[in-house]
Please model this.
Amino acid sequence: DTEVTQTPKHLVMGMTNKKSLKCEQHMGHRAMYWYKQKAKKPPELMFVYSYEKLSINESVPSRFSPECPNSSLLNLHLHALQPEDSALYLCASSQVITSGGNNEQFFGPGTRLTVL
Amino acid sequence: QQPVQSPQAVILREGEDAVINCSSSKALYSVHWYRQKHGEAPVFLMILLKGGEQKGHEKISASFNEKKQQSSLYLTASQLSYSGTYFCGTVIQGAQKLVFGQGTRLTINP
Model:
């Protein structure tokens, strides 16, 4: 199984809502990532988890809260988002994190988020 | 530290060749290449590590010039399925994160 799955595929939420994005992989990977991608732009790294511990936070606003309950699952909790947070949210995984990043990342299909 | 890709867009006819370039102002440890089709996830193509290696995979190959901190992706005898946006991702030495270039949109027409 070389697949990363993400749910939901689409999400529309108001600025006062609380919602969560879910990501799952069963490849035995120990590094998991959240990226944000705006239309016609490259993916931008948000968070990295290594062995279920938060390894990198790219100064993401606190209205985004990541969680890694186990080695296969990654969640992104959303609260009080702004319309400019509307984007495609991609999850990825790789075997491990190494200095130099020589491990390929497998991406999920993404959750398309619209904030009204 | 975002790498710079060129060209921004390419339009080809099926069977033609293309070269996409990626350059960095920082010393790189690795360069990753991904292709993303509209509405889909980025798909990994290949990684090149410092050492100036070249990799190939059917009609898609790439090189990494460590002295110039540049990588090039070569698409030979392009097929319709090659259409999409190509991203290079770079990891600077000592870092653990991948930073993507702005992308090159490749359109293959029959």
Remarks:
- The longest strand of chain A covers residues 18-25.
